[in-house]
Design goal:
245 residues, alpha/beta, six-stranded mixed beta sheet, two-stranded parallel sheet, 22% strand, rod-shaped
Amino acid sequence: MQAAVTVTPARIPELLLGLATVRPVFIWGAPGIGKSSLVRAFAESLGLECVSLLGTQLAPEDLIGVPQIREGRSVFCPPEAIARDEPYCLFLDELNAATPGIPRAGRYFPPEEIARCTFGVVLDTSGSMDRVLLGKALGAIASYAEARDVPAARVVFCDAAPHDAGYLPVTEIAGRVRVHGRGGTVLQPGIDLLHRADDFPPGAPVLIITDGWCDALRVRREHAYLILRGARLPFSARGPVFRVS
């Protein structure tokens, strides 16, 4: 441990000339007194290039370089800026500010994406739709999704036209439902909307909730129907039909 020496700014060039040519010198002083300018002037007076590295942005590899494998061994290769054959002045500015909290170069490992299940819901919201069926169907959706760890469903409301609600948390679907129209509805456009949606997985199933007063449907993926007990669909369903009472 070397003892500190107090000098005036005017004596710094003399100090550097006597010491910096044989050993590193750490200059500490109040900000704004011209320490950096004096170091650069010292290098210029000797005809040396002053290579300046800012301590607040300094990483270990800026000095020791990065490792390379040579003859089966790891060898650190210092950067070209400081690995020179000719003499120069290396100025580490604000070195005291180079704390461990400064970001260092390194590898970035993005968070692993976790695949989550989802399903589509085509919900009949026409005026003929029974409110009791709606309430029970929405409760069934929430229970089904919770049991299978499904965070959100792709929802399309249908009356005279489809209304794309996007992905909704299953617990919030009930709060978005609005019944429209005066009976009867067309559900096929809503199903087609899911078929064409880029953000809806091709293998995701679709649940169709209706009172049965609808058009004949063509569904080209796994699907099921949920209707009131005693109601009938106006076509032969290819998917399973579940009834609530």
